[in-house]
Write a sequence for this structure.
């Protein structure tokens, strides 16, 4: 915003104050995130910059906290780093296990939320949809209802949602459930919980993409002889794909960042990265947390870039369809 | 035209047009609904049913009713008994139940249930159950000789009410009401725990909303008025925190604000404060407010920005050319046009702040805890019904706000980034 030429000195002064305020707010937003990156290379077990770090002395920096991510929980951390060391780190190191859990839970929760959410969004964006407003409100509500309420409800219900391990149901689903055959303390329970939390994001992004979608294209495809399946995969899908992917990324990030539901319904086998961080911050806070934080910041930068590129592509595509 | 109106319009295959249209429309409605159905069922099973189950738990507790059958039966037959002076049969039933509890090892459960309304009951029950088998008739005298607390009217009121598994007592407790000798009444000042925390949570959330609004307003305005290329570059600074893990941001604030943290080091280094005068900005209310403001700020900036971007600058120019000062232009012309954005952002931030858990739990210390943390505390102490009742009250508050949001802004206007 340029200052108009007729501005008097007071307005000028105010304008520059305004720019300074904006700059400070941007600093407030971004500084905490950037600050963890150099801090994670601290050679000392402190959460602040040491004098050596400020003097840019290389001995003040180290990658020991990244190393700690591999050695925590490692059966023989001091031995030579041969293939068996790496194999032990892959299978036993606490943070690596947490990362694997986070990844798989996030992946399945995303697949579940995105599939169900996209199909539902297709229905919701049809003008004929009955009770549209009410259903929309219900499907968005996992984002609005405090996570603690959802987690408490699930912890009650999932402890009761069991099948007998020796029954037919137990034979089919037993593998996904806990040893007692319950949703509580099981991977499936965490996946389901995270899928519920991711659904609002998929619904919001996909319905937003569909508002610019020209419904007559569906009729055109039908009149040209396409069956509903072909119409979906050849006409609808390519146009709303950017929306689906950003929704899926939102759902994945939601799961990847979720800790409260995990605290309430997961068992020791479902330690995820956020839960490990939560415990770490509460109990013995070490700069290893900062190393994890740095890795997560890098991941979120990558995800943000992807979503931004997709959004631009989506806008461009919708422009082409002649909205 | 009169003939045309009386003659029924039909489709090519001879059906009345009206009926054919109705059939086609209902088919289209059914198709649309069928697409939504799988997700609806999923959400019903994994979201609505658990919350319903939680609400059921908030009015249900069979810890006493299941372990004291004789007393249950007596209370059923004598609903109008005088709690200040229960008769001998009641005491007889109580002693037989106590003996039974000792055998079935349910004393703790029963005592805990009564303990919610009558503090100190767990030890009373344990002692009573241990001695119950040795007590002789008349039971009233022997039990009162064991501990005169057995004659308290409050205890009898509490047991009468707990003899049914369904109760509203947990909501009474969560509203800071207290069972007295004359029934339920408002608690004294030192009993104001839950409502006080609700009040505090709403107050802090309102404060955070106002702070967010004040600092989001200039930034959104800048983003909305800058040329697109520059503003999308600056937008990244808003979106990156949005995409960064909450725990990362909380960790960062701990590193910044703790006593040996960067902000304190910086101020000591600049000579603003002495080394012994380091500020306590973490593990208290300040920490909660700062970290939550940071986390929720993007939720304020994004709706404000999307409203401000479509405000035509010509209105402000017109106001100026008609002689309005810049302040008047802002107050009378620009600000009213941003109201939809202010409403959307403020409500969203407030709703999210009221239910916040992680940040207060990690950086709030003792006095920075909010209502969610209290629910979690009672869950960890196995006070499930009480936790569920507090959660139920929080849920009602959130649903009212959500309804308001839908009425004022519309949930389909909710956007992400």
């Amino acid at each position: 915003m340029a200052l108009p030429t007729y501005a008097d000195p007071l307005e000028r002064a105010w304008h520059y104050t305004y720019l300074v305020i904006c700059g400070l707010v941007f600093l407030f937003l971004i500084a905490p995130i950037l600050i963890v990156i150099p801090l994670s290379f601290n050679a000392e077990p402190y959460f602040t910059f040491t004098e050596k770090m400020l003097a840019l002395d290389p001995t003040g920096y180290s990658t020991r906290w990244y190393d700690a991510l591999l050695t925590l929980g490692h059966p023989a951390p001091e031995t030579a780093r041969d293939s068996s060391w790496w194999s032990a780190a892959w299978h036993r190191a606490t943070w690596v296990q947490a990362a694997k859990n986070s990844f798989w839970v996030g992946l399945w929760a995303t697949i579940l939320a995105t599939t169900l959410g996209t199909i539902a969004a297709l229905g919701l964006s049809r003008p004929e949809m009955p009770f549209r407003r009410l259903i929309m409100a219900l499907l968005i509500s996992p984002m609005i209802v405090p996570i603690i309420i959802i987690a408490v409800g699930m912890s009650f219900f999932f402890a009761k949602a069991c099948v007998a391990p020796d029954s037919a149901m137990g034979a089919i689903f037993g593998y996904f459930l806990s040893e007692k055959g319950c949703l509580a303390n099981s991977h499936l329970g965490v996946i389901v919980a995270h899928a519920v939390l991711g659904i609002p994001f998929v619904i919001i992004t996909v319905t937003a993409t569909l508002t610019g979608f020209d419904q007559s294209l569906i009729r055109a495809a039908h009149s040209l002889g396409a069956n509903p399946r072909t119409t979906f995969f050849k006409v609808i899908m390519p146009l709303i794909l950017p929306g689906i992917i950003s929704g899926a990324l939102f759902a994945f990030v939601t799961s990847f960042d979720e800790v409260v539901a995990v605290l309430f319904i997961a068992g020791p086998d479902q330690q995820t990265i956020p839960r490990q961080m939560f415990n770490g911050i509460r109990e013995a806070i070490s700069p290893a947390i900062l190393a994890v934080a740095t890795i997560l910041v890098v991941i979120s930068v990558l995800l943000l870039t992807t979503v931004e590129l997709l959004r631009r592509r989506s806008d461009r595509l919708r422009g082409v369809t002649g909205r | 035209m009169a003939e045309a109106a009386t003659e029924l319009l039909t489709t090519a295959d001879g059906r009345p047009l009206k009926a054919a249209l109705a059939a086609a429309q209902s088919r289209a409605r059914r198709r649309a609904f069928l697409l939504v159905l799988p997700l609806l069922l999923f959400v019903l099973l994994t979201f609505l049913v658990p919350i319903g189950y939680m609400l059921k738990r908030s009015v249900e507790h069979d810890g006493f009713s299941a372990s004291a059958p004789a007393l249950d039966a007596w209370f059923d037959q004598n609903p109008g008994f005088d709690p200040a002076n229960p008769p001998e049969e009641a005491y007889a039933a109580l002693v037989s139940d106590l003996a039974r509890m000792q055998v079935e090892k349910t004393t703790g459960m029963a005592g805990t249930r009564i303990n919610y309304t009558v503090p100190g009951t767990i030890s009373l029950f344990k002692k009573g159950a241990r001695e119950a088998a040795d007590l002789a008739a008349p039971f009233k005298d022997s039990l009162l000789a064991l501990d005169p607390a057995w004659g308290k009217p409050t205890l009898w009121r509490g047991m009468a009410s707990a003899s049914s598994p369904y109760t509203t007592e947990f909501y009474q407790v969560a509203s800071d009401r207290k069972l007295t000798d004359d029934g339920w009444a408002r608690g004294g000042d030192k009993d104001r725990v839950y409502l006080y925390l609700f009040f505090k949570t709403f107050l802090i959330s309102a404060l955070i909303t106002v702070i967010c609004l004040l600092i989001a307003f200039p930034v959104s305005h800048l983003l909305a008025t800058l040329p697109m290329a520059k503003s999308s570059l600056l937008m990244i600074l808003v979106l990156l925190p949005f995409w960064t893990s909450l725990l990362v941001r909380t960790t960062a604030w701990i590193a910044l604000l703790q006593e040996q943290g960067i902000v304190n080091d910086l101020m000591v280094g600049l000579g603003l404060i002495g080394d012994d005068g380091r500020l306590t900005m973490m593990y208290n209310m300040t920490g909660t407010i700062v970290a939550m403001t940071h986390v929720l700020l993007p939720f304020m900036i994004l709706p404000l920005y999307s409203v401000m971007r479509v405000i035509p600058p010509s209105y402000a120019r017109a106001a100026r050319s008609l002689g309005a000062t810049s302040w008047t232009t802002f107050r009378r012309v620009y600000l009213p046009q941003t109201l939809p954005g202010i409403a959307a952002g403020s409500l969203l931030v407030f709703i999210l702040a009221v239910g916040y858990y992680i940040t207060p739990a990690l950086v709030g210390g003792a006095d920075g805890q909010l209502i969610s943390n209290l629910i979690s505390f009672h869950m960890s102490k196995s006070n499930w019904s009480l936790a569920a009742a507090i959660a139920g009250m929080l849920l009602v508050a959130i649903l009212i706000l959500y309804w308001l949001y839908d009425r004022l802004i519309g949930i389909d206007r909710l956007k992400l980034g």
